[in-house]
Amino acid sequence: MPVSMQHLVYLTAQVRERELEAAESLSVSAAQLMQRAAKSCLAALERQHPAPARVMILCGPGNNGGDGWVLARLAHAQGYRVQVVAAEPKTELAKEAAAAWEDEHGTAEPLEQLDRTHVAEYDVIVDAMLGTGLSRDLDKMYCRAVETLNDAKNFHKLWVLSIDCPTGLQSDRGVAIPVAVEADYTVTMVALKPGLLTAQAAHYVGHLELAELGIAPAFRQLEQPFATLVEQDEIARQLPPRARSSHKGSHGHVVIVGGAPGMSGAVVMAGRAALRSGAGKVSVLTHPDSQNIIASAQPELMVSSTAAESADDVKEFLARASAVVLGPGLGQTEWGRKLCEWVLAADVPVLLDADGLNWLAKNPAWAKRAAPLWLTPHPGEAARLLNSSANEVEQDRWQAVKKLAQRFDAQVLLKGAGSLVAQPDSSSIRICSRGTPALAVGGAGDVLSGIAGSLIGQGLDVEAILPCAAWLHGVAGEHAAIAGERGTLPSDLMEPLRKLVNP
């Protein structure tokens, strides 16, 4: 049975340097590989827009353009009305593919003359301009072509298919340099690339399909993956059915620390998520002014308060915990600072989020601890931890998450579209591609913290906790948003979450 690489992610250079070697080991020529790529794109086109749809194919000078030229011939043969708009082909394969099209069908229009009015005459636009071959900012002609295409697409509701990678999207980092094609569908070849799965990718890639081109087993023998996707079967492995003789003490005691005055809701969200994720017991250590509010909001939470006057009292309270979630609603007052310092000094597993991360950024030495540490920053919090900016973090999320894991000797989840998880030893990064814009609302991060804290308390493998938490959070959000993304609340995730932790 062929080896699938649907969950493996490779750097663009790995694919570029090894795909031909893998193909040759199977007696597949470069021209045959291009033919297979074009056939994969034709299959996607036929599923979405059957012939005789009007198709404009934009071909660049390299082998990505070559894929487009071959697709033009195949689509024409299937009854599509095809127009090629192209730059002058530069590679041998692209020249051969262009010549084959011109021998059979004659003409191609120059790419530099592309205009919105002409683009709007078609049902489908195929982007075969640059693919993964982009190493620097787009030049003026390609910027204009991309902007023309996007403008026409958004105004006339055209359907756009990108071959391998939307032109202008950096295929390893997932950022537009400086603009990128807004595709509805992307067929990427041989292996998934990092930039198709995180950062701005969700905006530009659309639906992502992997075409392995029949060389996956050979390619996998040549290269180790750069990252791996979190998949549903991992959740089932980590959360098997419970023993019939189990009791509440069998499933962990999670302590949520936070809830400064006016921010009690963050603790409630985290606590509810911990309960719905299967924690046996959930306690809260909060500010005296918040105790009654939290206790009345969720009766299953065992709520205590502290004025943060004695580190010994806090240490004694934490002694019974199997996991601590520190940060939801913690605040930036002296009360929050003391609790953060004292909790991190305790010999107990800690997941740090929200203001807990902000206090750590000011006091990085607090991360030097014997017990395990998990961090779940969004890009702004990650920037403070790295003494950089959120924009710098988003420009290379992969490097940012690796730096955080190494600097703080922690398991780190960098939140965002395409959440990333890294370990301190810089082994393969995990990526969760699940989620929805419905999660872009205050309180969603507190739910994630509660899920992760619950999984720590239940004793999941250390390196599986954040990948599983990210997947559960993202998929629960998808389910909650079925009725509509706008207006979905973090509390709406609780019932879907309950179902997901019982695979």
Automatic annotation (TrEMBL):
The free-text note explaining how the cofactor binds reads: Binds 1 potassium ion per subunit.
One family name in Pfam for this protein:
YjeF_N
- Keywords linked to the UniProt accession: ATP-binding, Isomerase, Lyase, Metal-binding, Multifunctional enzyme, NAD, NADP, Nucleotide-binding, Potassium
Q: Per its record, what are the GO molecular function terms?
A: ADP-dependent NAD(P)H-hydrate dehydratase activity; ATP binding; metal ion binding; NAD(P)HX epimerase activity
Which residue intervals define the domain YjeF N-terminal in the entry?
A: 15-221
Name any cofactors this protein relies on. K(+); Mg(2+)
Entry binding sites for (6S)-NADPHX: 63-67, 131-137, 142, 164, 266, 329, 378, 446
Q: Which CDD domains match?
A: YXKO-related (cd01171)
Q: Its family?
A: In the C-terminal section; belongs to the NnrD/CARKD family. Belongs to the NnrE/AIBP family.
Record-linked HAMAP family: NADHX_dehydratase, NADHX_epimerase
Q: What task does this protein carry out? A: Bifunctional enzyme that catalyzes the epimerization of the S- and R-forms of NAD(P)HX and the dehydration of the S-form of NAD(P)HX at the expense of ADP, which is converted to AMP. This allows the repair of both epimers of NAD(P)HX, a damaged form of NAD(P)H that is a result of enzymatic or heat-dependent hydration.
Q: What name has this protein been given in UniProt?
A: Bifunctional NAD(P)H-hydrate repair enzyme
